Amino acid sequence: MLDPVNISLESLNLTTLAPMLIPIVGALLILVMDTIKGGLDKSLYVVISMLFMGIDLAALLSASDMFSVAGTMMGAFDVMLIDGLAILAQLIIVGASLLFIPLALTGKRFHEFSYPEFFALFLFMMSGFQFMVATDNLILIFVGLETASLALYTLIALHNRDKSFEAAVKYFTMGALAAGFFSFGSMIFYALTGSVEINQIATVLAANNYADIGYVLIGTVFMLASLGFKVSLVPFHTWTPDVYEGASAAMAGYMSIVPKIAGFIVTMRLFEFLIHSHVVWLEYVLYGVVVVTMTAANMWALVQTDVKRMLAYSSISHAGFVMAAVMIGTTQANTALFLYWILFSFTNLGSFSMLWISRQKSLPDHQSSDHSYNKFAGMIHTAPVAATIMTLFMLSLAGVPPFALFWGKLYMIGSAVSAGYTVLALIMALNSAIAGYYYLKLVVYMLMKDPVAGVSGDTYTRNATLSLKTVIGIAAVGTIFAFIAINPLIEFITSFVYNSGY
């Protein structure tokens, strides 16, 4: 008779699961409450969501303290991995979510926020992204990826406009293809190494001296295609402009930040060990993808007539910019990745929130789309405060000093120069200059053109509730005064990245 296996809860280290389980509990609570008593005011669901996200944030800060003392922690049968990358990424995920949820306190004309299911799905999605970044197990990464993606498809469709359904279907189709690629790539790496844990895969491949390099190439291509869809790298970006256009402006801003940081972390864990093992062809492939993504996305953004689509292509270009850090693979570059994305989160979420404030249910004759450039003509005369804030966000995205993203771009380009990628640094600087043109184009429309007849200040501020003003105010303060916190932020990020071995 076999002796029963004794499993120590202490060895399981279930505290590593706490940050992911907290939003799941919140989502289930919302669903139970709605089942027991439907029709409750949506403000209650906003408060509950923010409460559980606040608890989640507290759990992450506690985990960061533990990491500072004990280093990298494993848990749940060594499936969970709580290291510096996981903690930093989750702080960005929860922080951006805390900024997004108050945008739900808006009018009922756009009614997705009136559904309790919206907030439950949002918390499930957040938990899925947290699982993605807090493990190096390919199976759990896949589970987190699909949990988050399935919730996100539904959230887009809940916007309930013609383009929303089209966007959700496109995103679902592309997401299914990406999931298939990820599964095939994982299968190949498992066949080669007998493991689905990235650290173990790296160890086995190095021990075999990359004897099966052809199969490694195939598996890496599948993984690159899958993760390229998630972070919108060219040529896997085709869904991005249409999905951003079909989603609400607030959701598009959120999608430009949170899903991508999760994708970047998985990409970093998976590709950097190959680059450090001098798999030269991968470095060449990533180099090409980075340059093409930055440059092509900028070219497409130049010819857009809709501000929302311009920001969509802009986010693709920024993704290419940040992907350069994964290719470079130094501690300075990985620190630059997090610094860039934190600063980008403030600026980009603020930009899309400004579009959310000015949204319209029906378009006037002079507008070809909800956020056409003509809509913003002469904005300085009709809504000077809104025009000033939007100008601030555009200047930051363009990398104009001393605003937030200037420091992110400067540190990213500096990391490329330090690692010997001088040509890449020049290409990054050139693309930043090109991007400045289409950001300043909107500034010119707002500050130098005459207002369109019939457009009043209410056109831009019709949905400016207190919660929206608060979120935009936080984003604006972060954008303006980021330079004060740059050095402490770099030191904070570096300590986590370096102690995680990246």
Structural write-up:
The chain is mainly alpha-helical and 502 residues long. It has one domain. The protein is built from 22 helices and 2 strands. A two-stranded antiparallel sheet has the order 1-2. Helix 3 (42-70) runs parallel beside helix 5 (116-133) and helix 6 (138-157) runs antiparallel to helix 7 (162-193). The protein is globular and about 70 Å long.
Number of helices: 22
Backbone CA Rg = 22 Å
Quaternary structure annotation: single chain
Task: Summarize the helix and strand pattern as letters.
Answer: HHHEEHHHHHHHHHHHHHHHHHHH
Low-confidence stretches: none
Number of beta-strand segments: 2
Query: Proportion of β residues?
Result: under 5%
SS-based structural class?
mainly alpha
- Assign a percent range to the helix content: over 70%
> How is the biggest beta sheet arranged?
2 strands, antiparallel
Q: Overall mean pLDDT score?
A: 83
Ends: how far apart?
47 Å
Strand order of the largest sheet: 1-2
Tell me, briefly, the overall form.
Answer: globular
The total tally of domains equals: 1
Task: Record keyword descriptors for this entry.
502 residues; 2 strands; two-stranded antiparallel ribbon; single chain; globular; mainly alpha
Annotate the secondary structure layout.
Layout: H1 9-12, H2 18-36, H3 42-70, E1 73-75, E2 80-82, H4 84-100, H5 116-133, H6 138-157, H7 162-193, H8 198-207, H9 213-231, H10 240-246, H11 249-255, H12 258-276, H13 280-302, H14 307-328, H15 331-357, H16 379-382, H17 384-397, H18 404-418, H19 422-448, H20 458-461, H21 466-480, H22 482-499
Antiparallel strand pairs: 1-2
Helix pairs in contact: 2-3, 2-5, 3-4, 3-5, 4-5, 4-12, 4-15, 4-22, 5-6, 5-12, 6-7, 7-8, 7-9, 7-10, 9-12, 10-14, 11-15, 12-14, 13-14, 13-19, 14-15, 14-18, 14-19, 15-17, 15-18, 15-21, 15-22, 17-19, 17-21, 18-19
